[in-house]
Every structure is written in C-alpha cells, then in structure tokens.
C-alpha cells in the first residue's frame, strides 16, 4: 500500500497501534528524549482514541448484531487508559513511580489493541466492502485532524461528547503544543 488513499480503516488503525507500541518501547528503554517521546505518545493516543470513539465504534455497533458488549468493553478500556495516561502526564516522566505505572499502562494498551484487532477490526473487514473501509479511513483521518492532542478523560467517551467538546479542546491543546515547542526551541 503505497498511498494513504489505498489504506482502509483497519490498515490506518493497525499502523497506529504499531506506532504506539514502538513509542511505548522507546519510553520504557529510558531514552534521553523520554519526555518528548511521551508527549508524542499522548498526542497519538488522544487523536487515535477520539477517532475510534467518533467513527469506528459507532459504525461497529450499527454493523453487526450482538457487538454492543464488545464495543462497550473497548470504550471502558479506552476511558480507563485516558485516565491513566492523564495521571502519568500529571506525574511526569521523572517521577520515581513513573516506570512502574507506565509498565502497567503499557500492558493494558497492548491488551486493548490486541482485542480490537482480533475482534472489532476483523468484524469490520467482514461487514464492509473495501471501498467502505477506505471511506471510513478518510473519515478517521478527518476526525484525527480536529481531535484534541491530549487526553481529556472527563470530557466523555461518546461520539456526541467528542464532537461537542473535541474541537475546542483540540484548539486549546494545539496552542499549548505550539507554546511548548517554541519554549523547547529556545525562542521563548
């Protein structure tokens, strides 16, 4: 798959799962740029989970009979992960308990991704045509472009909450990111 337009939603999200796994491994390896890697992980998880909550999970619930419990379980896992990630963010990568708590978080994220790929993504591939899955990938990419870049566990996990609260939080997050980047570049 050379081109993003060739990717379907499962390809897009599976690639992101791999990126998340790589970042987690780099953070656990205690690189010198651990804070920067952690910030990138927070950004990637925030936009990834928002897009899944807005696009993928609602589509999965409508697509097949009997998947409501599966989707509900994934949403519960995602909400727990958001809260845990927010706690880790507040704690900071230099906190003495960060490594142990991050290890538990990493295990939960890996388990969550494995369940999504084995259950929900497999179901999507069975229920939708390649064209529909490619259109869904475009919708996911758009949702990610307007998603917050930090986790906001108290904002809600429903598609409606993401649509109503997501864009203002995304603007706020992107301004904070720009200010942080400017400071890191030594310009402010």
Structure write-up:
The protein has 188 residues and is mainly α. Helices cover 78% and strands 0% of the residues. It is built from 6 helices and no strands. α2 packs antiparallel against α3 and α3 packs antiparallel against α4. The N and C termini lie far apart (42 Å). About 6% of the residues have low confidence.
Task: Provide tags for this entry.
single chain; 188 residues; mainly alpha; 0% strand
- How many E-type strands? 0
Strand content: under 5%
- Biggest sheet features: none
How many DSSP H or I helices? 6
- Along the chain, the helix and strand elements come as HHHHHH
- Rg is 17 Å
Stretches where pLDDT falls below 50 for ≥5 residues? 158-168
N-end to C-end Cα span = 42 Å
Tell me, rounded to a whole number, the average pLDDT. Answer: 79
